[in-house]
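Quick one: structure tokens for this chain, please?
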Amino acid sequence: MTVAPVAPPLLSDLLREGTRAEHQEAESQGFVTRLLAGELDVRAYASLAAQQHTIYAALEEASARIAADARGGSLVFAELARVPSIERDLEHLYGPGWRSQVRALPSVERYAARLRETATRLPEYAAHAYTRYLGDLSGGQVIKRMMQRHYGMGAAGLEFYDFPQIPKAKPFKDVYRERLDGLGLDSAEAARAVAEARRAFQLNRAMFAELGALHP
């Protein structure tokens, strides 16, 4: 009797299941729950946007390097780039001189340093890109709606959550997961990716904790 070989687990499944607890912990931070409940103000959202600029600048520097990787190039999509939209949001939220007004929090400096240190390697880049971009296309859309509902924000200041080249999020997310699964990571690389994705959520949670202290 021939036993059919067992297919290795998909990277997208490993990342989803392996980060479930960290994901829930990050989402339940007081800053996030208060912001989405309408208990803060636009200044609190502006603080979040300022921190995102530092994070995505580091991530997209890594994207430029990974794009040349024989395997990783398939995971880099120009339509996901967020830095230009964040900068337009910051100009709206802070004014033309926003660069002199915003500062990265210590937790975000650590986050960006981690990205610069690790995200030039494919497993680690996949982990960080997965946590950020799929989050933007999923929970990020909830944030956008809540900012509009509770704080009266219009399109200006929320361009970060707009993906004009991705008219439907679900088909794109399906393609992205297929690209993750097609990277051909071996078991050791996949384990590194899951560990780094957990780390990414932990860094995100630390950022929310500091933002909560700034906006009690």
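Residues 11-214 form a domain with the Heme Oxygenase; Chain A fold (CATH 1.20.910.10).
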